[in-house]
């Protein structure tokens, strides 16, 4: 199981994966924008709906571990390791 740190921007003009950044702690963070607003978990759901096909895993394999109310989120990706997650995102 891989951990994926995401910086989410809700309310964007389009759903898209922007690319990799480094957070202040030196971790790679994936910057993602979604159209959904952060109301009743809609932005978190949109994030999972966007990332699951990008990673070629079922939605059930992507779970929000931390950051439900924050822009910085930690997702768990079942069935992939860290290197494979990064490879699949970078290959897009």
Mean pLDDT: 94
Strand arrangement in the largest pleated sheet? 2-3-1-5-4
Helix content range of the residues, please? 25-40%
What is the element string, with H for helices and E for strands?
Answer: EEEHEEH
**What summary fits the major beta sheet?**
5 strands, mixed
Shape: globular
Q: Using DSSP, what is the number of strands?
A: 5
What is the count of helical runs? 2
Taken as a percent bin, the fraction of beta residues is: 25-35%
Helix/strand-derived category reads alpha+beta
Radius of gyration: 12 Å
**Termini separation:** 21 Å
Low-confidence spans = none
Write the layout of secondary structure elements.
Elements: E1 2-9, E2 16-22, E3 28-33, H1 42-55, E4 62-66, E5 72-77, H2 82-90
Parallel strand pairs: 1-3
Antiparallel strand pairs: 1-5, 2-3, 4-5
Question: Main attributes?
Answer:
single chain, 92 residues, alpha+beta, 2 helices
Describe the structure.
22% of the residues are buried. A hairpin with a 5-residue loop joins strand 4 and strand 5. The model has no long low-confidence stretch (mean pLDDT 94). It contains two helices and five strands. A five-stranded mixed sheet has the order 2-3-1-5-4. It starts with a strand and ends with a helix. The chain has 92 residues and is of the alpha+beta class.
Give a brief description.
By secondary structure, the chain is α+β, with helices and mostly antiparallel strands. Helices cover 25% and strands 35% of the residues.
